[in-house]
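Encode chain A's predicted structure.
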Amino acid sequence: MIRIIGIDPGTTKIGFGIIDFEEKTKDITLVKYGLITLKDSFSYAKIKKIYDAMVALNEEFKPDFIAIENQFLGRNVQTLLKLTHAKTAMILAFLNHNENIIIEEYPPATVKLTITGKGNATKEELEEVINRILKTEIDNKNLDVSDALGVALCHINKIYDKFFI
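Encoded structure for chain A:
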C-alpha cells in the first residue's frame, strides 16, 4: 500500500487530500481531505504556520509521496512570489521530516486531462469525476480540496502508467 498526499498550494487556503492505493488490487481509499485556512496577511510568520501545518500532516499520515499542483504565472508577480515561498515551505516540511519521501509537481491542465480526459475541464467537472472515482461526495465549496485530490490521483496515473486513461 502506498499513501499519497495531494496538495493545492496557496497562501490563504491550502487544499489537501490523502489517499491510499493498494498496488495489488488497484483499490483507492480516501483517507482524509481538508482545507487549511490562513487569515493573516502575508509574512514570514505565516510561512512558518504553513510549514508547521505540513509537518503535522506528515507526522500524522506518514505519506510515501507528495503530489503538488504547480502554480501558473498570472499577471501579478508578487502573488506568484508569495505562493512560491509558501510552496517551498510545504516541500521543506516534508523533506525535513521524511528523507525518503518523493515529491512531484503537476500542472493543473495535466491533472484535469488525466482525471477527466479534458485538459480544459472546469474545476466542477474535475470534482464530479473525483467523486465517482473515490465513491464519495466531497463537501468542497471552494474546490481547493478536489484540486488536491485530483493531483494525488494524477500521481497514481504516473506511477502506474495510464491507470485512469
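The chain is about 45% helix and 25% strand.
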